[in-house]
What does this fold into?
Amino acid sequence: MTSTAAPATTTAPAPVTVIGLGPMGSAMAGAFLDRGHAVTVWNRTASRADALVERGARLAGTVEEALSAAGLIVLSLTDYDAMYAVLGGADPAALRGRVLVNLTSDTPDRAREAAAWAAERGAVQLTGGVLTPPSGIGDPASTTLYSGPREAFDAHRATLEALTAADHRGEEPGLAALLYQLNMVMFWTALSGYWQALALAGAHGLTASDLRPLALEALDLRKFVEFYTPRLDAGDHRGDVDRIAMGLASAEHVVHTVAAAGIDTALPEAVAALFRRAVEAGHGADSATRLVEVLGKPAA
Ligand code: NDP
It folds into this structure.
């Protein structure tokens, strides 16, 4: 029997270098190894590479050696200062022609500066914002947002998908960093509410397990996002379902409850102060969506 189907083509996994072996970089190097990539690693503290070397990674002796080992260089460092500390000391020739996938988090401005810094040295930066903890690396249900040259992204997309789903959002190098920071604003602020509730629960002898059902309900804010999105886009701040004056009274009840428990009130006081500013600006009868406007300028 003959077949007209084209023979299957197999492309060997491309070699990858991972620089920075904190929890995130280590998980990433591990995910590349799992997919059969030749992985070269470098870390300031070389001993962090031990487990990866046992699994087949190659530990580069120098940063230049790490850069020379692959066309795709994944950077997972604490911040961009660490990136300059590592790459700034290397022979610039080793950077030429490299695609630096910078999964280090920092500000959008710093991501733009770093893209220009890389370009001056003949390298291309793809900025990435990883939307998962290390435990989600290697899971296609996790996502990383990328920005930077589309051509470089397309060339390395298949490799990057060893880490998470790869979502290219645009060419502007600061964009992925901005989207990452938007994510973190919501993440840290919402999670701080959870920590605060745990402290209050603990002051009343309740455990994390006791709080769990209520926390799962309270932290699921999707219905609020869905409800407010069209109103926000339409500039509709009518106080038909919620009013800022009511929000202030509620926020003050939280402050009083927290104070009565003898625990730190700084966080609920900051929330109450936000509502108070809105009321003082004459928005007491408006919806809480008006707080976006209040937050849109510096507090007096
Ligand atoms: P860590 O801060 O734990 O790891 C940082 C790495 O940076 C280590 O390899 C460390 O080297 C290196 N480093 C720090 N400063 C310097 C320096 N001056 N010179 C050389 N190397 C340096 O971070 P994570 O692994 O947790 O995360 C990496 C990046 O990923 C961060 O930008 C983080 O914001 C981001 N991220 C992390 C998430 C997480 O849940 N962990 C989630 C999403 C994003 P050494 O081992 O020698 O100290």
